[in-house]
Design brief:
Nucleotidyltransferase, domain 5, 185 residues, five-stranded mixed β-sheet, 17% strand, 5 strands, globular, alpha/beta, 4 helices
Length: 185
C-alpha cells in the first residue's frame, strides 16, 4: 500500500500508453545544466583580527568561516588571506570598507585601503571593496538574539560581521541580476 491508500494509484507514477513507440520514452539520463555562480570570500579587516566568511557555490548565502589573528607583518597577513581564498576556491574577494556614518573614509578606512592594496598585489582574483557600515552592530545583535555569551560573542563577532558584509554584497548582486543591469566587478 502506498501513500495514496488502498486502491489508489500514485499520480506521480505515470506509465506510457501502449500506443506510443518505446523510443518516445527515452530513459537515458541526460546531463542537467545548472548555472554555477562563483564562490566568494569576504574579509572584515581589523587591526587585531580578520573575520572571514564565504558564500555557497550559487552565490546566494553567506556563512561565517573563521577568525584569523593578525601578525605584525601586514604583507604576510595578506598572503595568508589570499591563500585562504584559493583554498576555498574563491573567484572574488570582498573586503569591508569602514566608511563613517557621514559617508567619509576616515583613519580606519585608510588602514584597510593599505591592506587591500597588499591583497590586490598577491591575489589573482578581483578584490572588491564593500561598505561595511553598521555590520558589527548587526552581527552583535544577531549573536545576542542567539543567546551567545559575551565571551562567545567576542570570539565570533568578526566572522559574523564578515558574513553580514558578504550577504549584503550577494544581495546587491542578485538585485542587479534581477533588474537586468550590468554587474559590477
Amino acid at each position: 500500500m502506498g501513500l495514496w491508500g488502498p486502491g489508489h494509484r500514485d499520480p506521480t507514477r505515470v506509465s506510457p500508453p501502449h500506443s506510443y513507440p518505446s523510443e518516445f520514452f527515452n530513459t537515458t539520463p541526460r546531463p542537467v545544466c545548472i548555472p554555477i555562480r562563483m564562490k566568494i570570500i569576504a574579509f572584515d579587516v581589523g587591526t587585531v583580527r580578520v573575520g572571514v566568511a564565504g558564500s555557497d557555490p550559487l552565490g546566494t548565502v553567506a556563512s561565517p568561516l573563521q577568525v584569523i589573528t593578525r601578525s605584525d607583518d601586514p604583507d604576510e597577513d595578506a598572503r595568508r588571506l589570499v591563500d585562504l581564498a584559493r583554498l576555498h576556491g574563491a573567484e572574488r574577494i570582498v573586503v569591508g570598507m569602514p566608511i563613517s556614518l557621514r559617508g567619509r573614509r576616515e583613519l580606519a578606512a585608510e588602514h584597510v585601503q593599505a591592506f587591500v592594496d597588499l591583497l590586490v598585489e598577491h591575489a589573482d582574483v578581483p578584490v572588491v571593496l564593500w561598505d561595511e557600515r553598521m555590520t558589527t552592530a548587526i552581527a552583535e545583535r544577531v549573536l545576542i538574539q542567539a543567546n551567545m555569551s559575551r565571551e562567545g560573542r567576542r570570539e565570533k563577532i568578526d566572522q559574523v560581521a564578515a558574513a553580514v558584509i558578504l550577504q549584503s554584497y550577494l544581495d546587491s548582486q542578485a538585485n542587479t541580476r534581477d533588474s537586468g543591469e550590468p554587474q559590477s566587478q
